[in-house]
Design a protein that fits this description.
There is one protein chain. This protein is α/β, with parallel strands linked by helices and 252 residues long. 33% of the residues lie in helices and 27% in strands. It contains 7 helices and 9 strands; from the N terminus they run βαβββαββαβαβαβαα. The protein has a 5-stranded mixed beta barrel with strand order 5-8-7-6-9. Helix 2 runs parallel beside helix 5 and helix 3 packs across helix 7. The longest helix is centred in the last third of the chain and has 26 residues. It is globular and about 45 Å long.
């Protein structure tokens, strides 16, 4: 093991920018990095692919964490150890609340902690909440970009596919939960425990909360459609603009 690199994501032990975009897909990390000035890949180990660069003069890290909260927590911790202080998760999600369309953005205000890992880190009563300044920065950036967006609570769930255990989807729908995804609550809890700023913006790629999917009408879950790609392109800019605003606020 190289002692000056972190054990999991193989990141430098220090000196990273304060602002980070975290995504699930290594290919999406590369796509976001293409928007940066001076982008350079600094690590690629397992699902963890990491770039640095700058957006309108603000140094930024872009890193992928793969699918699921347990592995994502490892990346968040190693990024924080290396100097990151502000995180925005930029991912995809399935709509739950009515009126949220494919390609729309959902800005997470908080998350249901059904992530499969934070229950082993803190008591269940501990909240998973986004930093208010991150929510507002993402909202402003989405409005300025003309991107359709929604705010609300998201459901972070460990299992992607349905199993034999009944799930409380109807209760969460009745409670107004906006969308379902797999990592936001882990980020919010990690940030809360370490005194960091964290937010999340998610592109809707279908109504994929198990029984909410109309298999006949939709042909099943398909995140590889043009409407989703267009939402991802908008969301990348919204994420970077929000990080720029948060960096400016940090430096005041």
């Amino acid at each position: 093991m190289t002692p000056d690199l972190s054990p999991i994501a193989r990141l430098p032990r220090g000196g990273l920018p304060h602002q980070a975009v975290v995504v699930g897909d290594p290919a999406r990390a590369a796509a976001v990095a293409e928007l940066l000035d001076g982008a350079a890949e600094i690590a690629y180990h397992r699902e963890y692919r990491t770039f640095t660069g700058s957006w309108k003069g603000v140094p930024v890290v872009v890193a992928s964490h793969g699918v699921g909260a347990p592995g994502a927590v490892l990346l968040f911790q190693e990024l924080a150890d290396a100097g990151v202080r502000t995180f925005v998760r930029f991912g995809t999600a399935g709509a739950i609340r009515a009126g949220i369309g494919d390609g729309d953005l959902v800005i997470a205000e908080a998350a249901v902690r059904d992530d499969g890992v934070t229950q082993q880190l803190v008591p269940p009563e501990y909240p998973a909440v986004a930093a208010p300044e991150a929510v507002l920065a993402l909202q402003r950036a989405a409005a300025e970009a003309g991107a359709p967006y929604h705010r609300g609570v998201v459901w972070t769930r460990a299992a992607f596919q349905p199993g034999l255990v009944p799930l409380p989807a109807e209760a969460y729908t009745a409670a107004g939960v906006a969308a379902i995804e797999m990592e936001a609550s882990a980020l919010f809890v990690t940030a809360g425990l370490r005194g960091l700023v964290a937010g999340a913006v998610l592109v809707i790629d279908g109504a994929n909360a198990d029984e909410l999917v109309d298999q006949v009408a939709t042909g099943g879950y398909d995140p590889h459609r043009d409407v989703v790609a267009e939402g991802v392109a908008r969301g990348a800019v919204v994420t970077l603009e929000a990080l720029r605003a948060l960096a400016e606020e940090e430096n005041r």
